[in-house]
Amino acid sequence: MKEYTYDRNARYARTHEWVRLDGSEVVSGVSDVAQDLLSDVVFVDLPAVGATFKQGDVFGAVESVKAAEDVYMPLSGTIVAVNGELADNAEWVNQDPYGKAWFIRIKPANAAAEMATLMDAASYKKYAEEEAAQGH
Amino acid sequence: MPELQRTRLYATHVALGARLVPFAGWEMPVQYPSGPLAEHHAVRRSVGLFDIDHMGQVEVRGPDATAFLQRLQVWDLNKMKEGDARYSLACYADGGIVDDLFIYRRPDRWFVVVNASNRAKDVAWFRAHAHGFKVMLNDVSDETYMLALQGPQAQATLSPLCPANLAQMPFHTGQETTVAGVPAYLGATGYTGEYGYEVFFPAEKAEHVWGALLEAGKPYGIIPCGLAARDSLRFEPCLPLYGHEISAEVDPISAGLGWTVSFDKGDFLGRDALLQTKLEGPGDRLVALEMVEKAVPRQGYAVLANDVEVGRVTTGMYAPTADRYVGLAYVPADLAAIGTELAVLVRDKPRAARVVKKPFYTPAYRR
Q1: CATH node for B283-366
Q2: Given an 8 Å threshold on Cβ–Cβ distance, is B298 in contact with A45?
Q3: Residue A65 and residue B295: Cβ atoms within 8 Å?
Q4: Given a cut of 60, is residue B15 above it in pLDDT?
Q5: Is the CB of residue A125 less than 8 Å from the CB of residue A2?
Q6: Spans of all domains in chain B
Q7: Most buried one in B266, B283, B336, B358, CB count within 10 A?
């Protein structure tokens, strides 16, 4: 198993998105594990600002050389900003998944209850390692 | 699911950190830790090494070997000198494609390289049509190893390991020689759009030859390359892949491979159907599409004209050297002209696309 980085201030979905609280909003992207599974990212398809999704909805896609993978809303809410810089810098997803390569800012609808359904960094690390061991 | 076959280099790939995936019944490296983009660029700019032992090889010998193969595939073998290598197709009577082939004219036999996914089907097809020909068909895939060394520094990499005069070896020829001391048949051939070699040798020497080539390529930054890079490298020059651009449902004329067909060589399987398609013009044509709206077209995505589905993408991706988001697709012939405005349905959203000229990358040997 490779050594991955985990943002200790983030919480994680089973579908490998991370979320970080920032005031009354949350920022989200995909984890270091996810970017490695994808390998070279060439395109990120992000939603329109103002779109509203429920937790678990597909909100966009991240595309590598080989495949397109859906990305899922880690929390219900409204998109208040998307990272437009990824349009010309998709490789940031591989280089800095918790930083420059954030995907979306969400105004959450039900943060308190839904945050509890996400994993902290330690639990997510264990989850990702078990998933890798099963050959996913 | 039947058990996947592993090449003799399986453990070597695992040790190199390769990610292995099922492909055509084999467990093959899709990428190494350097990643598909780095592997792609290594082949375009310097040199890369591929384990392609999943590919099949069939030898055709005997007094009627040439007559037999003349009937079973579309190119006129009489145009090939000893040592020539040539891309061709085997077709069904209705013009559909059985497989694409690389044919080498060796001194005492025809040596035919076939796709891994089609090996059993091809051998059965050949045998089913061998009646009445004095011909010996020998599937030598298991005992023959196949590696591909590709890129502008392939010759410099191979030279110290091979006594053949590589500088004087034209592209699309083959010869008997040795590689790293191992008796080998060397093809100046490949599937990347670059100059390079495909090396055939006894399977038990796989690790020795692989290791020697990686070592010899070190000064040029050689890296092992997986199926992902093999796909993007063949896609840019628009080299077809069976199951994508070509299949039993598609004929060579529609696929833009009419140049492989020698109509003037006498009868062969599929000739009547192909001649008719050539004269009447195909209903659908394989075209190159470039996304006008940024998105990645993928295999199976619908192609739209005025919001109506008119075709499907056969292969599409971000083309790394061309630096374009492009695809190949079958569309009705009246929508195949360069500049035709179409759309590709990407995750339920139509994204503007345009028919553009093929290929996305001109092969080194065509410049």
Answers
A1: 2.40.30.110
A2: no
A3: no
A4: yes
A5: no
A6: 10-52+142-235, 57-137, 283-366
A7: B336
Q: Is the sign of the CA dihedral B242, A36, A70, A131 positive or negative?
A: positive
Average pLDDT over residues B190-199: 98
Comparing C-alpha atoms, which of A85, A93, A115 is closest to residue A24? A115
Q: Are B352 and B292 in contact (CB under 8 A)?
A: yes
**What's the pLDDT tens digit per position in B276-307?**
999 999 999 999 999 999 999 999 999 999 99
> Among B318, B346, B347, whose Cβ lies nearest the Cβ of A42?
B318
pLDDT recorded at residue B124: 98
Q: Which domain holds residue A75?
A: 12-110
List the single residue in A40, A42, A87 with the smallest CB-CB distance to B296: A42
- Residue-level pLDDT at A132: 84
Taking the C-alpha atoms of residue B60 and residue B212, their distance in angstroms, rounded to an integer, is: 31
Percent of chain B with pLDDT over 90: 99
pLDDT in tens, A94-110: 999 999 999 999 999 99
Phi then psi for residue B277, to 5 deg, are -60, -40
Name chain B contacts of A64, Cβ cutoff 8 Å.
36
CATH fold for the domain made of B10-52+142-235: Gyrase A; domain 2 (3.30.1360)
Q: Which residues pair with B57 in a beta bridge?
A: B113
Length of chain B: 367
Residues of A with CB under 8 A from a CB of B: 39-40, 42-43, 45, 61, 63-68, 87
Q: Write the pLDDT tens digit of every residue in A37-47.
A: 999 999 999 99
Average pLDDT over residues A122-126: 97
- Residues ≥6 apart with Cβ < 8 Å to B139: B56, B57, B58, B119, B123
- Contact partners, residue B120, CB within 8 Å, separation at least 6: none
d(CA B237, CA B232): 9
Task: Look at residue B1 in the predicted model and tell me its pLDDT.
Answer: 58
Report yes or no for ipTM above 0.85. Answer: yes
- Total domain count for chain A? 1
Helix (H) or strand (E) holding B91: strand B85-91
Query: Any chain A CB within 8 A of the CB of B348?
Result: no
* Burial label, B23 (beta-carbon count in 10 A; 0-12, 13-18, 19+): middle
CATH placement of domain B57-137? 3.30.70.1400
Q: Which residues pair with B242 in a beta bridge?
A: B246
Residue B325 pLDDT level (bands cut at 50, 70, 90)? very high
Contact list, B320 vs chain A (CB under 8 Å): 65
Give the closest-approach CA distance of B294 to chain A in angstroms: 9
| Residue A122 resides in a domain | no
Contact between residue B252 and residue B274 where contact means Cβ atoms under 8 Å apart: yes
CB contact under 8 A, A65 and B347: no
